[in-house]
Structure to design on (672 residues):
């Protein structure tokens, strides 16, 4: 190596400067993104669909056909219209509850992990106690105590019962960040605790918080549908859960009215699968150890490293960004 | 920390969780605005199925049972006393029937479905996950994706699909219920044979999802262990693959024991709605009927029993974990 102390600015013009290469999105990621986007589009399509979800357009379980692509449900409503409205409601509940749960979880975990001491003991004690009690039970108890449930109250209730596992995971990460040196630097330069937490600790946890949020959203959607199926859903609103609730109550499965129960079942499955897959593929992006079986990419990466080494050894500047970033295998230079 | 302290600490935490759960169970239904008895009785009479005399009886029983005229802390101790002597109260909806009888009839069905599902699902799921991690390649990819799909699928969605495809369309299994009409539950060969044919669908829908969830967890744990330094070292020492596999399996197994503790709660919650889909006469169906009839004593009894069962199961798993993993005992604090 002729230039062991190459100037830092050289990194910018290195062949790796293509920002998307470092993300390394897998097929899995794109599949999950397509699923999630498709569900969101289904929810938004309700605004354009001519029939309202409360309009009576037929009788009990009319089979699909004649202008009704998915037939009617037990009330004689258009199943497709109800499905669109229900998907929208479920997504709203999922987003609101997921935001609340992630916010509480990250806040509790961050403070507990970073501050430590008795505060950590207390916060983690509460977290572990809440975690041990099955959340569906707490949800049922709170729901029967509420005089009337709207989608907003339901979302808040789901949000404030779902945070503990996020808090536990964030705490572990925050306490490892707390021992790093840049925290000492921040302290010495006089930063206050809130600023250290937000500026110096949170960014390290952000990738995890995003993944937790994705899981919280799908968890909240499923919790809502579970509650609705037990008869504790939002009153007077269509959601995926209430749609299933009525389909079961009116014996849609036993009578073979598949159009009444299959659509919400499939959408719910897609929601939970899509979000989980999204989380798993984000995990692979953030945690390279989980990536496997990509021999082609590994070969490319090795070739790229070899070329970098060669370029460094020759002491010449690598081609500027915008040039063809694909690596040209060279025999010169050792393996990086 | 030695094993004794570990057990003591765990016992302490689970006692706190138990008290919190019982407290929630006691407090939440009392948060109904206004006098809960008025709300309940007016809800009951709105249905029109209850005569004035019954209404008065219910009113008096409820006030006497919970001592609503006394201060809250005294009510709590009355409630605790009753619960610990095994008296769960009297049902509103099926008035003279005691809650103990109602729950006693439903509980065996739920236990019969859930306990084998947990045990078999856990063993099979771990095997599948470990094999997927060792084999790698396409086998891994297909197993991982299908496990992820199955585990992300809500229990009730799979139940509905299985019920429709296997029972309604294919006619392999009976549609809903737990035994044929005309039979009464008894310990005879004829009845058991009949009940088994109804048993398969709820059992399958629980166990399949559970296998998926465990397999996903085991796979990522095993992959994580495969990259461990001790694996590289063992390879360098020329230790045979089979022996290394054994090391990895034992190490990856440990977090799966904690995973079992966490997933029991989810499974029990999911099983509630699975029973509902199959109209299986277990606790889930009882809970559903109780919610639709505002039968607070039954709801409270079921939520209490489920909470206690899940806490006990988690506690047992954690104690087993303490015995199996020496590192837990050696660690400074096992709680976090």
């Amino acid at each position: 190596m002729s230039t062991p102390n190459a100037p830092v600015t050289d990194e910018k013009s290195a062949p790796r400067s293509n920002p998307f290469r470092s993300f390394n999105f897998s097929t899995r990621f794109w599949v999950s993104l397509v699923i999630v986007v498709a569900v969101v589009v289904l929810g938004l399509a309700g605004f354009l669909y001519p029939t309202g979800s409360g309009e009576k357009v037929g009788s009990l379980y009319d089979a699909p056909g004649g202008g009704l692509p998915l037939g009617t449900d037990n009330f004689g409503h258009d199943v497709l219209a109800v499905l669109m409205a229900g998907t929208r409601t479920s997504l709203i509940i999922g987003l609101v509850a997921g935001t609340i749960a992630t916010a509480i979880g990250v806040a509790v975990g961050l403070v507990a992990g970073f501050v430590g001491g008795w505060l950590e003991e207390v916060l983690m004690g509460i977290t572990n106690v809440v975690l041990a009690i099955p959340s569906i039970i707490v949800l049922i108890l709170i729901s029967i105590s509420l005089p009337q449930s709207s989608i907003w109250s339901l979302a808040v209730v789901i949000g404030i019962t779902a945070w503990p596992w996020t808090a536990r995971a964030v705490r572990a990460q925050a306490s490892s960040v707390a021992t790093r040196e840049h925290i000492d630097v921040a302290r010495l330069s006089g930063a206050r605790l809130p600023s250290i937490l937000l500026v110096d600790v949170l960014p390290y946890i952000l990738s995890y918080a995003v993944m937790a949020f994705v899981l919280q959203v799908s968890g909240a959607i499923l919790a809502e549908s579970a509650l609705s199926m037990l008869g504790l859903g939002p009153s007077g609103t269509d959601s995926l859960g209430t749609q299933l609730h009525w389909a079961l109550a009116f014996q849609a499965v036993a009578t073979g009215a598949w159009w009444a129960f299959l659509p919400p079942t499939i959408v719910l499955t897609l929601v939970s699968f899509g979000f989980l897959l999204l989380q798993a593929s984000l995990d692979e992006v953030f945690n390279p150890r989980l990536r496997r079986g990509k021999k082609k990419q590994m070969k490319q990466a090795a070739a790229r490293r070899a070329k970098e080494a060669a370029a460094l050894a020759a002491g010449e500047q690598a081609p500027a960004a915008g040039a063809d970033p694909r690596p040209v295998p060279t025999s010169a230079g050792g393996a990086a | 920390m030695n094993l004794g302290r570990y057990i003591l600490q765990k016992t302490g935490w689970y006692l706190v969780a138990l008290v919190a759960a019982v407290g929630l169970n006691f407090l939440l239904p009392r948060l109904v605005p206004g006098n809960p008895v008025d709300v309940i009785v007016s809800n009951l009479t709105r249905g029109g199925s209850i005569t004035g005399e019954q209404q008065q009886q219910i009113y008096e029983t409820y006030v006497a049972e919970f001592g609503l005229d006394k201060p809250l802390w005294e009510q709590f101790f009355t409630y605790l006393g009753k619960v610990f002597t095994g008296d769960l109260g009297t049902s509103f909806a099926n008035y003279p029937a005691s809650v103990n009888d109602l729950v006693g009839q439903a509980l065996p069905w739920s236990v019969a479905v859930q306990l084998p599902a947990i045990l078999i699902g856990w063993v099979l799921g771990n095997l599948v996950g470990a094999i997927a991690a060792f084999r790698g390649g396409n086998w891994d990819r297909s197993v991982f994706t299908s496990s992820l799909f199955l585990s992300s699928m809500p229990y009730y969605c799979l139940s509905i699909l299985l019920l429709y495809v296997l029972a309604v369309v294919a006619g392999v299994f009976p549609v809903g219920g737990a035994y044929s009409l005309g039979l009464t539950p008894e310990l005879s060969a004829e009845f058991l044979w009949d009940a088994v044919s109804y048993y398969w669908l709820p059992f399958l829908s629980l166990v399949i999802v559970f296998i998926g969830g465990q397999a996903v967890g085991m796979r990522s744990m095993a992959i994580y262990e495969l990259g461990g330094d001790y694996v590289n070292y063992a390879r360098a020492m020329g230790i045979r693959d089979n022996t290394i596999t054994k090391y990895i399996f034992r190490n990856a197994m440990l977090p799966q024991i904690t995973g079992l503790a966490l997933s029991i709660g989810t499974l029990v919650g999911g099983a509630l709605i699975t029973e509902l889909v199959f109209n299986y006469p277990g606790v889930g169906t009882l809970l559903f009927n109780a919610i639709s009839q505002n039968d607070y004593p039954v709801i409270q009894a079921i939520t209490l029993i489920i909470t206690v069962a899940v806490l006990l199961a988690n506690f047992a798993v954690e104690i087993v974990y303490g015995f199996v993993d020496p590192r837990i005992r050696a660690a400074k604090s096992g709680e976090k």
